[in-house]
Write a structure and sequence with these properties.
Blueprint lengths: L1 E6 L7 H18 L6 E6 L4 H10 L4 H12 L2 E9 L2 E2 L1 H8 L10 E8 L7 H12 L3 E2 L4 E4 L14 H20 L9 H10 L4
Parallel strand pairs: 1-2, 1-3, 3-5, 5-6, 5-7
Antiparallel strand pairs: 3-4
Organism: Streptomyces olindensis
EC number: 1.5.1.-
Protein name: FMN reductase
Length: 205
């Protein structure tokens, strides 16, 4: 199986890239524990920023951008991580997914995540990222992950799961849905809810 993570972080090093790596490791580990071989690729959108802009105005992707789009559309599972800009996903993140064929992500398992300086922006997961991929008819896993600056190295408390626990749970949900999709025929529009039901029934012990 192929797992692709898209990171829209702009800095180096990037907490957005770090979160993408951690989520990919979690999902890959869950699948490997159940004898599933997974090839993982991380796409750094900052390296494609000029190519994305050129594609938007010319309609033609560069070879590197074309390869990234093919990787996303051909993946068995997708992780999409963006920094929060002006209370939403970044413009680069949105521009990249604007280039994806509207039908290419239908039924594809997607884990959404975001990073920001403060926990106040965590609702970006529900008011921006989840609706975006629902519009693209992807199957978004139940647990989305937001990492504020203070979350790194935090173990949480009796009321709130720490970041490592949320990463493990989200990675496990993505792995479970990828495993279901690997043995299920490609879905039509009417089959997406069936896949979601299978995810709710499937648990990795």
């Amino acid at each position: 199986m192929r797992l692709v993570a898209v990171s829209a972080g702009l800095s180096t090093p990037s907490s957005t890239r770090l979160l993408a790596d951690r989520l990919a490791e979690s999902a890959r580990g869950e699948l490997a524990a159940h004898d599933q071989d997974v090839d993982t690729e991380v796409i750094e959108l900052r390296e494609l920023a000029v190519a994305v802009a050129n594609h938007l105005v010319t309609g033609f992707p560069s070879p590197q951008l074309g390869s990234a789009i093919d990787a996303v559309t051909g993946a068995h599972g997708l992780i999409a991580v963006t920094p929060v800009f002006t209370a939403s996903y970044s413009g680069l993140f949105k521009s990249f997914f604007d280039l994806i064929d509207p039908d290419a992500l239908t039924g594809k398992p997607v884990l959404v995540a975001a990073t920001g300086g403060t926990a106040r922006h965590s609702l970006v997961l529900e008011h921006a990222l989840r609706p975006l991929f629902a519009h693209l008819r992807a199957t978004v896993v139940p647990t989305a992950v937001y990492a504020a600056s203070e979350d790194w190295g935090s173990g949480g408390d009796e009321y709130t799961e720490g970041l490592p626990a949320r990463i493990r749970r989200a990675g496990g949900e993505l792995a479970a849905l990828m495993a279901v999709r690997a043995v299920t025929p490609e879905p039509g529009d009417d089959d997406i809810t069936t896949l979601e039901r299978q995810l709710s029934d499937l648990r990795f012990d």
